[in-house]
């Protein structure tokens, strides 16, 4: 059994890849326990992961299981053809897209980024009743909006980790506020 704590911290990219290769080449009966804040490292080296928040184990499973269970929904990227026409009654392509996403996909969808012809939306978790098949059918049916490309992606391990880190930060702030109120 090998225990490693932040093994690739402050290591250049080439040395990091070599270290990862050595760790992955272990025998099947050998176990490596790794602690890290790097979700890239955790995803590359782990067959099972655990995430702790304020000293409490919050999740345990494969990277795919953790992303599926604790991710905050899918992201939908829509790319509009530069020459796409704007529909009647809409001030902009952005408003037309917003109306499509809110009306046909989910009123809980949120625009994360919009740059030129590229628009990125955060879709609600599948537990909110949104099915990927429905999203794909709706986008295909509304390509007349000028949608030239689209993609749906699962949340990354980094996004899941950051969500847990935010929870820890908020819990720490609440504890500090409670302590301050007791002293007054």
Quick description:
The protein is α+β, with helices and mostly antiparallel strands and 184 residues long. The chain has helices spanning 13-24, 39-45, 63-70, 93-105, 132-141, 157-183, and strands at 2-5, 32-35, 49-53, 56-61, 75-80, 110-115, 118-122, 147-153.
List the defining traits of the structure above.
184 residues; alpha+beta; Rossmann fold; Alpha-Beta Plaits; 2 domains; four-stranded antiparallel sheet; two-stranded parallel sheet; 8 strands; ATP-binding; ATP-binding cassette sub-family A member 7; transport; repeat
How would you describe what is shown here?
The protein has 184 residues and is an alpha+beta fold. It folds into two domains: 2-70, P-loop containing nucleotide triphosphate hydrolases (Rossmann fold, 3-Layer(aba) Sandwich); 75-153, Alpha-Beta Plaits. 42% of the residues lie in helices and 23% in strands. It has six helices and eight strands, in the order βαβαββαβαββαβα. The protein has helices at residues 13-24, 39-45, 63-70, 93-105, 132-141, 157-183; strands spanning 2-5, 32-35, 49-53, 56-61, 75-80, 110-115, 118-122, 147-153. The strands form three sheets. Strands 6-7-5-8 form a four-stranded antiparallel β-sheet, with helices on one face. A two-stranded parallel ribbon has the order 1-2. Strands 3-4 form a two-stranded antiparallel sheet. A hairpin with a 2-residue loop joins β3 and β4. It is globular. The model has no long low-confidence stretch (mean pLDDT 85).
